[in-house]
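Reopening this ticket.

The earlier resolution said the output was attached, but the attachment link was broken on my side. Pasting everything inline this time so it's all in one place.
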Amino acid sequence: MSNTTNHYDLIVLGADVAGLVAAALVARRGKRVLVVPHGNPDGAYRLQGRAFALDTAPLVHATTPPVERVLAELGLVQQVRRLAAPIDGLQHHVVDDARLDLERGGRNLDAELARLWPDEDAAGAWALRQRWTDATENVLGELLASENALGAEGFWGRRFLSRLAAQLPGRDVDECAPLVEDHALRRVAEAHLPWLSHLTPAQLGKAAALRLGRLWSAGPEDLPSGERRMRELLLQRIELHSGEVKRELRVAELVMKRGKVVGVSLLGKRDRYGCDHLIIATDPRELVERGLLGDAAPRSLLQSIGAVATAASRFVMHVEIDERGITPAFEGMALCCPARSGSAPEGSAADWVPDAAHGVGHIYVRAEPGSTETTRRLAITRIVAVDEDLGTMRERILDELDVRGVLPFARPWIRLCHSPHDAREAEDGRGEPHPELGPGSAMTLPMAPLYFSDEEPLLGVGLVATGAGVRGLSFASRACLPGLGLEGEFAAGAAAAALVASPARSPLSRSSLLSKA
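Inline output:
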């Protein structure tokens, strides 16, 4: 028989940023908090003590209003503002036979557009897109800055959703109207979406896509070490306010009593931990797949989670290369767009969506200082299809970057190549085991998904509501508001935290738009 040996106001199960946000806020509000991350919550994996990021995307949301509202309560605003800085170097956009080399903030954009498309009004199309992003920011930006977006109901309050939706641009809006439908510049404008958003571009709302475009065009900015640094700050705040993070624990099942979650039982232990509230901060599908709720899951919750699927995933690879192996033309980061998608295969369903519409084939490369003065570290992410073979993915990525001129003739100069997803050991550019890091370095860590839903996402951004329909249980994961990326995780975490411990209300924080609604 299990005994309840510890009792917490809140237990957070999982390590999504949204869950860490909820834990930090609830701990800050004086409650007893435990985080059971089921692994390392700092967003990195390690080889012989060397840390490598699992998410390589820039934190373009780090200083946006919803993120800063949370950081303000945690006392982190000034620290994050000091850390946030524009990314050095150029942005290389590679699409078809074209390559745009953009300076920070797009200072040379008009000149690059005129160089590549001298006989087209590409600059006029981009200017129209900028006007659409500014107009969208006036509505969606105010919503995200409001207290309503971070409250207990958050985005899921039905009173104002219909009114708000009417003010946002619909999917039929063509923000690059002067250009033909398959123009390369259209793909350049959307190249960053699969990297920054957790929702497939095929379902991402127009307003969310325009907002991400605006944030990207403004910099983009990042923190040193990116998402890893943000996670470290949140973990420090959890522990500062006497919260606990127990990486070694594994939850076997949720403990229910009279229809309410009252604790968790632990794998391999007779003890169990009691709680007043439990937040799922990982993929909600695990709740069903592992049978954690048993027969207690309401039908509406099962239907909501059952509609969520993985459309594509992010394959991460890290390369250490002699600086002589990098072309002088590569500086900063590269975004490589895949070739145009073909027609539907014979016998496809009527609702068939090509892999390219989910972002499959996009490759993102970031150059950073290496472990020595003569090397550089490349953080590479490729969007892969659900059933794509990972066994040869390293070679396929390097071959494509070679052919497309991003890393030409680089193989002989590669000192280390490793991915935490493909069950292969660390190697050099020739495929030989790395002498120091190779043995025992094979990993099969799960890839971050891009979600797809059988149902229309809420406002083109939301999939899983914070409230689970079970007393004492809620969600704070990247699946809640995947279309908003990191911003959505902060909003979901704040909404879940409000269900546990209400924040102090500010009379100046209510959105005028939502007041009218």
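Reporter confirms the inline version is readable. The mean pLDDT is 88. The two ends are 53 Å apart (CA to CA).
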